[in-house]
Amino acid sequence: MKREVLEGVIADLRAGCTPHFDPADFPCFSDEALAGKEHLSTACIERLAKSLTQVDIPTFQRALRAMDEGDLAWLGFKLVYDDTQAQENVDNEVTKKYGDVGSADGEPLVFFCNDAKEIVTSRAYSERDKFQMKDVTRGPSMHNDQFEGLTWASVALFDQVRVWLLGASDASSEVAALADHVGFAVTVVDYDPAYLNETRFPLARRILLPGGTFDTLDDYAADSADYVCVLTRGHMFDPEACVWALKHQVSYVGMMGCAGKNERVHDLVLAKGGTEEGWRRIKRPIGLKFGAKTPAELAISIVAELVDVRYRQRYSKEARDRHEANLGR
C-alpha cells in the first residue's frame, strides 16, 4: 500500500468526491482476486466507494498512522451484494455463537484492523461483523465468504516480503507461482532467457544476467529483510548465490541439495569469501521435510517453510502460542 493512495482517498472525501479504488493499489479488488466470484461485481465496489463520506476519514487516517509506525495492520472492506441476506447471516449449529443477528446492516463498510485487533470504523457493527473483520485481516490480502449476501476483503498496509529465487530451475518456476499466491513479492534471477521468461515466470520480477554466468549478481542488492532461495540449475552457481545472500545479510537463505553436494558448496563458499558462521545460517536442504520429490512438491515444501519463517518473524512467541492454543494444537 502506498501512502499517497490513502492520502488521495482522504482528499476526495474531504472534497465531497467519490474515491476510486484502483485494483493496482487495492489487490483485493483485482480481476484475479475476484475471479470466479460471480456474485461480486464492479457495482459492489462502486457502491462501497459511493457510501463513503467525511465520517470515514478517521479510518483512513488510522491506516496512515499504522503505516508510519510499521504496524502489522490492514484496511478492510465489507462488500454487500444482497442487503437482506447480509443481515441474516446468523450462526448455525456448527459455528460458534456470536449473537442473534448477522451483519449489523446491509450497507457496505470500510474498516481498519491491526494485529492487536483494534478496529476503527465509522458505524456500529455486530459481534458477527467483528469476528469477520478479524478473520479477514490475517494475511497479505484475503477474502472471507462464509455467509451469503456479503463478502469481507482486506489489503495489507505493510510491505510484502521480497523473495529472491536465484536460478530459473523447474522447482523455481513452481516456487514463484506459489510464493506469489501466498503474498510474497518474487524476484527471479538467471542468465538464460530460455529458462527465465514470461511463460515460466509470468508474475515475478525477472533479472536476466549477461555473460552466461552469475558474475554480475553483485550489481544487485538485497535488503536485510529479504529471503533468498538458492535454486540454480544443476547447482552450478549455488556458491555464488550463497555468498551473495550472506554478504547482504538477508533474513533467510535456503539451498537445495543433498549432504554430499552441500559439502562441496561449503568449500567453494569459503573459498569465495564466506565464513563458517555464515554457512551455518543457510538452511540445507531448503524446505519443510515431508518427502517432497517433484518440482511441484518441492515448491510446496519450500513455500511452506517461507510462510513459517514469515509467521515467526512477524508474531511474538506469546501471539503464536495464543494462536496455537485457539486452534487446539
Name the helix and strand elements from N-terminus to C-terminus, one letter apiece.
Answer: HHHHEHEEHEEEHEEEHEHHHH
Query: Which strand order do you get reading across the main beta sheet?
Result: 3-2-1-5-4
What is the helix tally? 12
Helix content: 25-40%
How does this structure look, described?
The protein is α/β, with parallel strands linked by helices. The protein has 2 domains: 3-156, no CATH class; 162-313, NAD(P)-binding Rossmann-like Domain (Rossmann fold), CATH 3.40.50.720. It has helices spanning 3-14, 31-34, 42-51, 57-69, 83-87, 127-136, 170-181, 238-247, 259-271, 276-281, 295-314, 317-327, and strands at residues 73-80, 109-114, 119-121, 143-144, 150-156, 162-166, 185-190, 205-208, 227-230, 252-255. Helix 1 (3-14) packs antiparallel against helix 4 (57-69). 37% of the residues are buried. The model has no long low-confidence stretch (mean pLDDT 91).
